[in-house]
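Record 1 of the preview.
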Amino acid sequence: MVITDETIDYVGILAKLELSEEEKEQAKQDMSNMLEYVSKLNELDTKDVPAMSHAFSVNNVFREDVVTNTEDRENLLKNSPEQKDGCYKVPKTFD
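->
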C-alpha cells in the first residue's frame, strides 16, 4: 500500500496535528515501513492454526451475585471519615 500526501493530511486532521512538509515526508516513510513490516505476516502459513479470540483460555472467574438483605449500618459507616445522623457526611457539590 502506498501512503499518499492525502492520507498523511487526513491522519493529521484526525490526530489534530499540524505537520511541516519535512514531518509529513517522515510520517509517510514511517507509515510505509510499518505497513511493509506488518505485511510480512501474510507470508506466514496459518492453514493449521485454529482461529481464536484470545491467546489464553479465558474463563469467567467472577462469583455469583448473592443478594442479602442485611443492613449493618454500623459496620458500613465504620471507615467513613465523617458521619452525621447515621449517614455519610460529604462536602457540598453545589449551592
